[in-house]
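Lecture 7 notes: from sequence to structure.

We start with a single chain of 93 residues. Read the sequence below before looking at the structure.
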Amino acid sequence: MTFRLALVMLVALTSCSAAEPPQNSRNSYDVLLHLSSLPEQRAALATVLATPREYVPRMRQTLQTYAEQLKKDRVAANRGVYVAALVRDPSFG
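Now the structure, written as tokens:
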């Protein structure tokens, strides 16, 4: 079941496209939220899943501001939820 969920989330992440963020703010989490390049997203997801504690505060912020983010960038807001679901940090609850 977990593998299926991860696969569905990865497909959802890669099936949508969004604008590229400014170069100075690109980190793995930004790549996941904003880029449509599948190879870059795979590498970024591997980085986030390998070191989730580094990205948890940013994910928490995305979840807390989800309603506002939907108005600005629906794709990025939804991707943030998908990534947070994969990480499954207790602080998200």
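The first helix runs from residue 2 to 15. Keep this in mind for problem set 3.
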